[in-house]
Specification:
This protein has an 8-stranded mixed sheet, with helices on both faces. The longest helix is centred in the C-terminal third of the chain and has 18 residues. It has a single domain, classed as 3-Layer(aba) Sandwich (Rossmann fold). The chain contains 12 helices and 8 strands. The termini are far apart. The chain is globular, with a radius of gyration of 18 Å. The protein is of the alpha/beta class. It binds adenosine-5'-diphosphate and magnesium ion. Adenosine-5'-diphosphate binds next to helix 2, strand 7 and helix 9.
Length: 281
């Protein structure tokens, strides 16, 4: 049985949104590009998707999606906005929650603010996928999100530095013992052979030294369509749907949807919040 299918059967009778954090050891490997385009590919497959932009440094998701958030989570927790007022609509019904500096303060929420977060759950419960775009590296904030999310995608490129940084990150994740599996996406590969080799290299070391399984979820090829899309602030999956990276993303979405359906007993998102609060405290 493939690792993904195994994951599928282990998920059992689950319900609620699947929370997937996208992270990397090294910055600039293509996380935001993946989150933006994958959200749209999942939406095309009829799934309801919410993106949490938790990269506190840069509000990249909105930029690559070509939308402008009027408010952020900060306005909800510290201002007068309700959760439905801070959702930024994106194409194909995707919705974006901008973290702003709101995420930084999770540890210090008062009861009114905690209630607001709980109210927010109603929205996320109805989604099929919550994709979290995190920053790179092993800072407390990044790790908080990754450790709290039920599933994690670690993005790598075939460059040696990307692989070593990703390995350090995965090593820390394996110590948390939250995930039994890490999904790998290899970006900027020249061809499938190169991507498979990169995934194989890191998996071999992880298999030997870490108690965590690496699953090669998919690959995205190096292509000008990605840079063109960034410059135009339009997702390549919409702007150049026939391009190789658009096809790559389509396959990743298909695998996620086919490989592990979102059926769950307890709400993944409630679990996510409980874990993240614990982590920040
Ligand atoms: N498959 C690809 N082909 C060509 N360029 C890419 C590809 N993926 C990413 N890039 C380039 O890398 C830059 C950084 O991507 P981004 O998604 O912002 O990375 P991250 O979120 O990990 O920092 C993009 O602006 C784009 O120019
Ligand atoms: Mg980014």
């Amino acid at each position: 049985m493939s690792a993904l299918l195994k994951l599928n059967s282990e998920r059992g009778n689950q319900r609620g949104a699947r929370v997937i954090a996208v992270t990397s050891g090294k910055g600039g490997v293509g996380k935001t590009s993946l989150v933006v385009n994958l959200s749209l590919a999942l939406a095309r497959l009829g799934r309801r998707v919410v993106i949490l932009d938790a990269d506190l440094g840069l509000a990249n998701v909105e930029v690559l999606m070509g939308v402008t958030p009027l408010f952020t989570l900060y306005d909800c927790l510290y201002g007068t906005k309700e959760i439905d007022e801070i959702l930024t609509p994106a194409p194909l019904g995707v919705q974006i929650v901008s973290g702003g500096s709101g995420f930084l303060e999770l540890a210090n929420l008062n009861s009114r603010q905690q209630q607001k977060i709980i109210d927010a759950l109603v929205f996320f419960e109805e989604a099929d996928f919550v994709l979290i775009d995190t920053g790179a590296g092993i800072s407390r904030n990044v790790l908080g999100f990754v450790a709290a999310a039920e599933e994690v995608i670690v993005m790598i490129t075939p460059e040696p530095t990307s692989l070593t940084d990703a390995y350090s990150l995965i090593k820390i994740l394996s110590k948390f013992q939250v995930h039994r599996q890490v999904l790998l996406v290899v970006n900027r590969a020249e061809h499938e052979r190169e991507a498979a080799a990169a995934a194989q290299r890191i998996s071999a070391v992880a298999n030997r030294f870490l108690e965590i399984e690496l699953v090669h979820l998919g690959s995205i090829y190096e292509h000008r369509a990605v840079t063109r899309a960034v410059k135009r602030q339009q997702p390549f999956i919409l702007f150049e749907p026939q391009s190789p990276p658009a096809a790559n993303i389509g396959l990743i979405a298909r695998r996620l949807v086919d490989g592990c359906p979102p059926v769950r007993q307890e709400s993944a998102f409630q679990g996510f919040l409980q874990r993240i609060m614990r982590f920040f405290r």
